[in-house]
Amino acid sequence: MLRPALWAVVLFPLPWMVGRLLLDQLGADPIDKLERESGAWALRFLIASLAVTPLMRLTGWGWLVAQRRFLGLAAFFWTAAHLSVYTVLDWFFDWGEIIKDITEHLYITLGMGAFTLMIPLALTSTKASIRRLGGSRWNKLHALVYVSVILACFHFAWAVKKDLTQPILYGALAGGLLLFRVFWRTRTREGRRTSALVQSPKEG
Prior knowledge:
mainly alpha
């Protein structure tokens, strides 16, 4: 039941946006609206995927691990949709202008950087890739998601410019989740060090 519900959450915004576009309910600049909404969904799912590990560690709900890669792929899907609106509807494959836009506007560069880092993560999201790379190398590669979410948050904040409520909220959530990882890793390392010191006299 959980996976169908997640699929519904991931896909529901797509017909909703297309329907509003066809009914001319996206305001004076519908393409800009589509770009912003698809980008916001990409960031929501990216943050949701980051929230899985802290939630597992706090609750012990190991079944959540199966949803982490799904949410990561959902984030990649919406990031690709966001990029498609930009390249197809906004610039209509005018690659010269697109490259010029990327190089001249830093927030576009940051967004492209976030998307580029997500490509190897999406390509290696299968169980076969985990076996082929090995758990350690797979985890190191997928640490790129931390850089990607930071770039995405700056891209969002820079693109909005006026009402920064949502970028600040998402940035705070992403920052909190990243700080939790640092805290947990530090605490685990200190725990191991303390355990080694306690055991050391007995071994001697």
